[in-house]
Amino acid sequence: MCPDTDTTSGDSAHVVTAFLRHRSDVLCLRRSDAVGTYRGQWGGVSGFAEGNPDDQVRTEIREETGLEPGETISFVRSGRPVEFEDADLEREWVVHPYLFDCNTREVELSEEHDAAEWVPPTAIFEDDRETVPKLWTAYERVAPTVRSIAADDEHGAAALSLRALEVLRDRAGLLVAERAASSEGTESPRANGEPVSEATSSPRNGERDTRESGPQPADEWDELAELAGRLLEARPSMAVLRNRVNRAMAGAAGADGDRRDASAVLESALSTIDRTLAADTETAAIAADRLGGSVATLSRSGTVLEALETGEPSRIFVAESRPAREGIDVAERLAATTDCTVTVHTDAAVAAVLARDDVDRVVVGADTVLPDGSVVNKTGTRTLAVAAAREGVPVSVVAATAKVSTSEAVNLESGDRSAVYDGDAAIDALNPTFDVTPADCVTEIVTERGVLEPAEIDAVADELRDLEAW
What we know:
Keywords: Initiation factor, Protein biosynthesis. The protein is about 35% helix and about 20% strand.
């Protein structure tokens, strides 16, 4: 988090620290003997902010990992600076934290570091991992929160379910570390007493502040259960988020209900994250085997995109997917990562494309699969599926079983009306962002368990209902 050579002036030294995230792990780097401060300690990508921190952090990433911003990594967010004083160094630091997503784990270390590991952020608390000061505080200021999940309109349901599990994991890991610090009489990770993020906010509704007398298992469970409840409410239309949070909490509660503490939630959250990543990968692999010939798709599903990139389609038609037009980004990526012909077209042209061109299969993702086999997905999916049914083109929905809803109720989100019409006339505007495709327009649902027919989905919903009892 802090650099090796001071090239700044003034009362405080401004530095940047970047957390690179791949899937749900972050990159930790161990500072070598070539640096001037914090040798042998673990941190993120760091360096003095000699100019604009936003520019400097990208330079440090390039120099310290060999990764190129904009190609292998993408900016997620920056956080409020962390200010602290290191009395031993007689130095005041101002750390500007950043979070970037990374599509590879292959890094080339500079001389400033002698080891690199991809680990869950909660590994910062491990006893054998000495870290640079305030590393956890810096991470928390860019980590996912309930609020960031609720406001995210760029990522699909599967990605947001992973972020929700990370929120639960991070809070549980913090509570475990606080309990250990209390029993050992050492400094708490929240030593300043400052609620640096939503994940470390003070207890609510008159609950006892465990920071005064040490965390207790019952208090830990109550705090984490309350957090899980807020995660469930953040995106009520996303069954996958609900199911995966329920799985983590149900696993922590245990069959006998005796494992209700932060350690159990941390263990279960980590296990559910691994299960989530494996399910999405396996779903994409099974779908890829079915994607030969000419394929039509829309919107942006990470699982569908992975299937298209690893499958062998000869041509891909991509609807632009208004109003955000995320289909354009998908088409550009497929053009760069596949050898097949990629064609983009307007949403209004989907029926014409299916009628005119020789399309072998429609493949789409799903935000939610209802118990009767109908599918909730980005607006336009219903139009595409109905047109495909008219032309006799099979429709494959690619979705892990965690996306199956336990309820028949549908909560469809809508977007900003100004995206449709922002003029001055007395015109009402509709901007539904999701629609429901009837089960009789769906040929199959490709999951990590294999290919299911719509009629088989209700049995999966029954299994998921059992997880709600925690």
